[in-house]
Recover the amino acids of this structure.
C-alpha cells in the first residue's frame, strides 16, 4: 500500500553531526500527522528531505511512492509545503504571490485561492510585508491549497503566531482537510493543540524517531498508575513504564497498558496527550515504536 | 437567512486524557440522557464541528460512526446524521426525586463541616467502588 | 518563470534601461556636435591655404569630451560590475538568505529548472542591454574612425575595455560571478563584496599580464645608433615596451644625465663637449655597435585589435561558463547535499 511518507534508515549528516538518523517511518494517507519534538530534533530536516530541498546522506525517502530527488515533479505536484516562518516575497502584493504560484504550478485553482483569501479577509492589493504574521501564514497556506495537492507538509506553521491567528490558521487548514480529504504532516514543538488537531503522531527526539502511533490509541493505552512504591516494576505483563516519579511511600508511573489492570493496589488515571508526549521526550530511545507499529496501518 | 441554533454544542477537554472522539460520543449520550437531544434531531455536520472546535475531521467521523454502531444515530447520505433513539430515562420524575435527595445529602455534608474538595473525593471514591463492584459482578 | 524573474528584477532592469537611454542621449548630442566640427574641419582643409589647427583643436576637444571624460570612463568601466553585483549576487543571495527559495523550489518546478531558467533569463537580459550599449558606442565611433585615430586618444589601449565587444563579455562574467558568489555565500553583503573584489582582480590581472601576449607581439630591434631614419611605431599600435638592450636581450643601464646607455655615455660626452652641435656621431655609433646595444620595440599592431577583442571575450565567456557549472555543482552538492 502506498504511504503518504515512507522512510527507510533515512539520515542526514552535516560534517560530523547527524541532524537526522536511522529514521524509519510509514505515515499512511488520509491522516493529520503531528511531528513532535524539541528544537533540533530533526523535524525540519525530515520535511526538507521529503520535499527534495535536501538529499539524504543515507537511506531513502518516498512521498506517495515517488522519490523527491529523482521524481521531483510528481512529488511537487502532489505535495504542498510551507517552510518555517512561511517565507514569501515581502515586496510582492498578495495577488502577485498568487500569480507566482499560478506560473510555477501545473495545477492551479485561482478561484479557490481567491475564495479562501476572502474568507479570512486578506486584501489582494496589500503587500505581503505589510500583513500581520497570521495573515502571511494564511497566504502561504492558501498558496499551497490552491495547487490542489494531495498532501500538505507544514513546518511549525503556527509557532510565531498569537493564539487567535493560530486558531484561524487551524480552521482554514482543517476546513480544507475536511473538504478535500488532504493528508497533512505538521511539525510542532508546541504540544498543546496537537490532540484536537492530529489523529496520528510521530515523536522525534535526539534526531531519532521515538514513537509513531495513532492518537486515540496513545490516549487509550497510556495511563497514570498511582500506588505503593514497593509494588512498582519497570515491566510486567500488564504494563510497561515510560516515566516514573517516586515519593517516600507511593509512586506515580506513566505506563503503556498491555491489558486490563486488575490489581486493586493501583489507582488508574487517564493521562493527557501532552503529558504522554513529554514523557516520551524525556526518555529518549524507549523504543516503543515496535509495539505501536501494529496500530499504524489502521484505515477508516 | 435566519441563524439556526445547532442541536448540540460540543466542547473538548484536552487535558482529560480521554480520546477526543470518545468525548464527543459521551457528550451526545449525555445530551440524549438529559433530553437536550431528541430523536429526529440532526447532529451538526462534520464541517460545522470542525469549524467550531478546530478539530480533526476524522475525530468527528469516528464519533458519529461509534454512535451509529450503538444504534443511537443514523446517517442519511447527502442529508446528514440524525438521532434515532433517546437515552433519557422513562421515569424522569424519579430523576427529580433523586436530585432532591442529593441536594439534601449535600447540605448534610456541608453542615457536618466537609469542604467541597472532601465532598468531591468522597463522592468520587464511592462512585469508583460502585463501578468496581459492577465490573466484578459482570466478570 | 519569465514573469517571476521580471517581477523580481524589474527595478534593476528599469534602471538599466534608463542608463541606456541616458547614454544614448549623451552620445547623440555629442555626435551631432562632433559632426558639425568635423564638417568645419573638412571645409577648412579643402582650402589648402588655411591654417586648420583651430578647427582641428575644436574637433579634438569635442571628441575628448567623451573619450577622455572621467565620468564616462568610470561609468562605462563599472557598468558590467554593477550588473554583476546588483542583478547577480544581490538577487540570488537574498533569495537564499531570506529563505524564500524554500517556497520557490517547492512549487511546481524543481531547483535545477529554477537555476537554469533564471540564469538564462537574466543572462539574456544583460546580454541584450550590453549588446545595445555596444551598439550605441559603435555607432558613435563608426564614421569618426579616422578622426578618432588622428585624435590619438582612441588608440588600441584607450579604447579596448570600453569601445569593444569585451564589455559584453565582462558583463556576463560579472553576472555569473555574482550568481556564484550569492549561491556560495548565501548572504547579500558578503556576496556583493566578493563579486566586487574578484571582478576587479581578474580584470586587472588579465589586462595587465595576459592581454599583451594573446598573440606573440611584434619585436623590432635596431642598433641604438644615432641615425636619420629610425623605425617608428606604426600609428595607433599598442606599445608594450621600448627598451635599450644588449646582445643577450637584457636591458642595459642608462646614464641618468644623458639618457644614453652607460657604456657609451662617456664617448658621447667626449664628442659633444667639444662640439655641441653638428658633432660627428660615428665614434659613438661604433661604441654602440661594438657592444651590440639595440633599441628593442615590442608592440601589437592595430590590425590585431579585433582579434584581441575576440580572444579576451572568449576568455571571459569561458570563465562565465565555468562559473555557471560551478554554481550548479555547488547548489547540488553543497546546498541540497546530493
Amino acid at each position: 500500500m502506498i504511504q503518504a511518507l515512507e522512510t527507510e534508515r533515512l539520515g542526514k549528516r552535516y560534517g560530523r553531526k547527524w541532524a537526522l538518523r536511522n529514521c524509519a517511518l510509514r505515515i499512511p494517507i488520509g491522516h493529520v500527522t503531528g511531528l513532535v519534538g524539541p528544537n533540533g530534533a530533526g523535524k525540519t530536516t525530515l520535511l526538507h528531505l521529503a520535499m527534495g530541498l535536501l538529499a539524504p546522506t543515507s537511506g531513502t525517502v518516498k512521498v506517495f511512492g515517488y522519490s523527491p530527488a529523482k521524481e521531483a515533479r510528481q512529488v511537487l505536484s502532489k505535495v504542498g509545503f510551507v517552510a518555517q516562518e512561511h517565507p514569501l516575497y515581502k515586496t510582492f502584493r498578495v495577488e502577485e504571490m498568487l500569480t507566482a504560484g499560478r506560473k510555477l504550478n501545473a495545477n492551479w485553482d485561482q478561484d479557490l485561492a481567491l475564495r479562501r483569501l476572502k474568507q479570512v479577509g486578506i486584501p489582494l492589493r496589500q503587500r505581503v510585508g505589510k500583513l500581520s504574521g497570521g495573515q502571511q501564514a494564511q497566504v502561504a497556506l492558501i498558496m499551497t491549497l490552491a495547487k490542489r495537492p494531495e498532501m500538505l507538509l507544514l513546518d511549525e506553521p503556527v509557532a510565531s503566531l498569537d493564539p487567535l491567528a493560530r486558531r484561524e490558521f487551524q480552521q482554514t487548514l482543517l476546513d480544507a482537510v475536511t473538504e478535500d480529504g488532504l493528508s497533512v504532516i505538521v511539525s510542532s514543538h508546541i504540544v498543546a493543540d496537537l490532540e484536537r488537531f492530529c489523529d496520528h503522531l510521530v515523536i522525534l527526539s535526539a534526531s531519532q524517531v521515538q514513537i509513531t502511533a495513532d492518537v486515540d490509541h496513545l490516549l487509550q493505552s497510556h495511563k497514570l498508575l498511582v500506588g505503593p512504591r514497593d509494588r512498582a516494576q519497570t515491566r510486567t505483563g500488564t504494563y510497561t513504564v515510560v516515566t516514573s516519579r517516586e515519593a517516600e511511600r507511593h509512586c506515580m508511573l506513566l505506563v503503556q497498558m498491555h491489558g486490563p489492570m486488575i490489581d486493586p493496589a493501583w489507582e488508574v488515571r487517564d493521562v493527557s496527550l501532552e503529558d504522554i508526549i513529554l514523557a516520551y521526550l524525556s526518555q529518549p530511545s524507549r523504543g516503543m515504536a515496535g509495539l505501536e507499529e501494529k496500530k499504524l496501518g489502521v484505515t477508516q | 437567512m435566519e441563524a439556526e441554533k445547532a442541536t448540540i454544542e460540543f466542547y473538548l477537554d484536552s487535558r482529560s486524557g480521554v480520546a477526543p472522539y470518545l468525548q464527543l460520543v459521551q457528550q451526545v449520550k449525555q445530551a440524549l440522557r438529559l433530553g437536550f437531544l431528541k430523536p429526529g434531531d440532526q447532529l451538526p455536520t462534520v464541517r460545522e464541528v470542525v469549524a467550531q472546535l478546530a478539530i480533526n475531521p476524522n475525530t468527528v467521523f469516528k464519533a458519529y460512526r461509534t454512535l451509529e454502531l450503538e444504534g443511537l444515530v443514523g446517517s442519511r447520505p447527502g442529508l446528514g446524521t440524525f438521532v434515532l433513539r433517546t437515552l433519557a430515562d422513562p421515569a424522569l420524575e424519579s430523576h427529580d426525586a433523586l436530585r432532591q435527595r442529593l441536594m439534601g445529602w449535600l447540605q448534610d455534608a456541608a453542615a457536618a463541616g466537609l469542604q467541597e474538595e472532601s465532598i468531591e473525593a468522597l463522592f468520587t471514591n464511592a462512585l469508583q467502588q460502585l463501578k468496581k463492584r459492577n465490573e466484578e459482578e459482570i466478570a | 518563470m519569465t514573469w517571476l524573474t521580471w517581477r523580481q528584477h524589474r527595478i534593476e532592469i528599469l534602471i538599466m534601461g534608463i542608463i541606456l537611454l541616458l547614454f544614448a542621449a549623451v552620445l547623440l548630442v555629442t555626435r551631432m556636435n562632433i559632426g558639425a566640427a568635423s564638417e568645419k574641419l573638412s571645409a577648412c582643409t579643402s582650402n589648402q591655404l588655411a591654417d586648420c589647427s583651430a578647427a582641428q583643436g575644436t574637433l579634438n576637444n569635442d571628441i575628448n569630451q567623451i573619450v577622455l571624460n572621467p565620468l564616462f570612463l568610470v561609468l562605462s568601466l563599472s557598468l558590467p560590475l554593477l550588473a554583476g553585483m546588483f542583478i547577480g549576487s544581490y538577487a540570488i543571495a537574498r533569495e537564499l538568505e531570506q529563505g524564500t527559495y524554500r517556497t520557490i523550489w517547492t512549487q511546481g518546478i524543481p531547483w535545477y529548472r529554477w537555476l537554469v531558467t533564471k540564469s538564462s533569463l537574466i543572462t539574456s537580459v544583460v546580454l541584450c542591454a550590453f549588446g545595445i550599449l555596444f551598439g550605441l558606442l559603435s555607432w558613435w565611433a563608426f564614421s569618426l574612425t579616422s578622426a578618432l585615430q588622428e585624435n590619438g586618444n582612441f588608440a588600441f589601449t584607450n579604447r579596448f575595455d570600453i569601445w569593444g565587444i569585451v564589455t559584453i563579455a565582462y558583463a556576463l562574467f560579472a553576472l555569473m560571478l555574482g550568481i556564484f558568489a550569492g549561491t556560495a555565500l548565501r548572504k547579500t553583503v558578503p556576496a556583493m563584496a566578493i563579486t566586487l573584489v574578484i571582478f576587479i582582480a581578474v580584470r586587472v590581472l588579465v589586462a595587465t599580464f595576459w592581454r599583451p601576449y594573446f598573440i606573440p607581439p611584434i619585436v623590432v630591434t635596431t642598433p641604438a645608433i644615432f641615425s636619420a631614419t629610425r623605425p617608428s611605431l606604426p600609428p595607433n599600435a599598442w606599445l608594450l615596451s621600448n627598451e635599450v638592450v644588449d646582445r643577450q636581450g637584457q636591458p642595459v643601464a642608462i646614464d641618468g644625465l644623458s639618457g644614453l646607455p652607460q657604456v657609451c655615455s662617456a664617448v658621447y660626452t667626449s664628442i659633444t663637449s667639444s662640439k655641441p652641435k653638428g658633432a660627428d656621431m660615428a665614434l659613438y655609433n661604433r661604441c654602440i655597435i661594438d657592444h651590440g646595444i639595440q633599441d628593442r620595440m615590442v608592440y601589437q599592431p592595430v590590425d590585431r585589435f579585433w582579434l584581441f577583442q575576440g580572444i579576451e571575450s572568449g576568455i571571459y565567456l569561458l570563465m562565465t561558463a565555468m562559473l555557471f557549472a560551478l554554481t550548479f555543482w555547488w547548489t547540488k552538492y553543497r546546498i541540497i547535499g546530493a
